[in-house]
Amino acid sequence: MLDKTDREILRLLQQDARQSSSDIANSVGLSQAPCWRRIQRLEKEGYIRKTVALLDPQKVGLGTIVLAHVKLSAHGRANLDKFADSIRDIEQVLECYCLMGDQDFFMKVAVKDVYDYEQLFFQRISQIEGVAEVKSTMALSKIKDTTALPLTAPQH
């Protein structure tokens, strides 16, 4: 169960994970050692999965985002697992969700441009066994971009 201080520590880490435990401690009203122990506990308990650097997609040449809905030809567990395993091997696929409803999967894909996506689509995505249909949309602009989860509600 996360208390108010745990949630505040997590909120601060989501803003900037490079902050020292001393700086975080000052912000939440703890001394450094108890704050560091809380951070260690949050990591051990899996609240903090990993600490990463968030790159600018434009600066690394992957400024085009494609959102794709995928429908499989068959819906057995084996088909879903095969698709999921294949997608995990495509590094341009940033996120992939299994869905309820008319479509089976939703993917967020980062590519250089439309031509880069075309190659990825024809050489990799459309070649995955069981793919019946892919509906792709290119994002024109980014309205909101965050990795921070809202932490205001108490955890159960």
Automatic annotation (TrEMBL):
SMART domains: HTH_ASNC (SM00344). Residues 2-63 form the HTH asnC-type domain. Keywords: DNA-binding, Transcription, Transcription regulation. It comes from the Bacteria. The keyword Transcription regulation applies. It holds the Pfam family AsnC_trans_reg. InterPro entries: ArsR-like_HTH, AsnC-type_HTH_dom, Dimeric_a/b-barrel, Tscrpt_reg_AsnC-like, Tscrpt_reg_AsnC/Lrp_C, Tscrpt_reg_HTH_AsnC-type_CS, WH-like_DNA-bd_sf, WH_DNA-bd_sf. The keyword Oxidoreductase does not apply. CDD domains: HTH_ARSR. PROSITE patterns: HTH_ASNC_1, HTH_ASNC_2. This is Lrp/AsnC family transcriptional regulator.
